[in-house]
């Protein structure tokens, strides 16, 4: 298994998902069992802050990094060309980015407990994104929420010249920043959400 390969085997894909699940569980257990009791409310607040910040992180990464900055842009274009292929950010890269861009700055600004809690929230958000993105491309929509996410993401994949619809787990920031086209949303309202 190559560490920096973009297209992965099913085993590597499952290993990535399992690793992030394990990291979330282990970090949550560490904070619950070893975290100072007098900081429990703060720890929960920092974890929630990390989780609530995820949609903004997801939107910014998708809109400004994956669509504008090389080599990420060419990697993401490969995903657009082949949406059913198992193409994703290598685990070592995504984990390193979370460590360097979330954990270390939080550690320098606060303490170990708050940095771990904030990282836990972001990791949980990233995990929710990973699961949602997988479901959008590789499963049939059985519920209303997933059907909406599949339609939204299908619009993103269809908008090559004028991209938009960057949110995978949420449409809120696309609506807030106007990165949608109302006519696209209306045209696809009755289409089959299982477009991939």
From TrEMBL:
Molecular function as annotated in GO: fatty acid 2-hydroxylase activity; iron ion binding
All copies of domain Fatty acid hydroxylase, residue ranges:
48-179
Report the principal subcellular site: endoplasmic reticulum
Keywords annotated in UniProt = Endoplasmic reticulum, Fatty acid biosynthesis, Fatty acid metabolism, Lipid biosynthesis, Lipid metabolism, Membrane, Metal-binding, Oxidoreductase, Transmembrane, Transmembrane helix, Zinc
Q: Cellular component per GO? A: membrane
- Give TM segment ranges: 12-31, 43-65, 85-106, 112-129
User: InterPro entries, alphabetically?
Assistant: Fatty_acid_hydroxylase, Scs7
- Any one GO biological process: fatty acid biosynthetic process
Membrane topology summary: Multi-pass membrane protein
Cofactor dependence:
Zn(2+)
Domain of life of the native organism: Bacteria
Name one matching Pfam family.
FA_hydroxylase
Location in or out of the cell? Endoplasmic reticulum membrane
UniProt protein name: Fatty acid hydroxylase domain-containing protein
């Amino acid at each position: 298994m190559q560490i920096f390969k973009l297209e992965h085997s099913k085993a590597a894909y499952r290993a990535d998902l399992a690793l992030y699940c394990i990291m979330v569980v282990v970090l949550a257990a560490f904070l619950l069992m070893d975290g100072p009791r007098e900081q429990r409310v703060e720890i929960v607040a920092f974890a929630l802050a990390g989780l609530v910040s995820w949609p903004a992180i997801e939107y910014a990464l998708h809109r400004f990094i994956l669509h504008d900055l090389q080599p990420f842009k060419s990697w993401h274009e490969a995903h657009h060309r082949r949406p059913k292929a198992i193409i994703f950010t290598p685990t070592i890269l995504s984990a390193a980015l979370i460590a360097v861009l979330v954990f270390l700055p939080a550690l320098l600004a606060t303490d170990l407990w708050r940095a771990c809690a904030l990282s836990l929230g972001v990791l949980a958000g990233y995990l929710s994104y990973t699961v949602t993105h997988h479901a959008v491309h590789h499963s049939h929509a059985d519920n209303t929420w997933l059907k909406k996410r599949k339609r939204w993401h299908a619009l993103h994949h269809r908008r090559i010249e004028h991209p938009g619809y960057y949110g995978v787990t949420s449409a809120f920031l696309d609506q807030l920043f106007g990165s949608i086209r109302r006519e696209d949303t209306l045209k696809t309202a009755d289409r089959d959400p299982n477009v991939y």
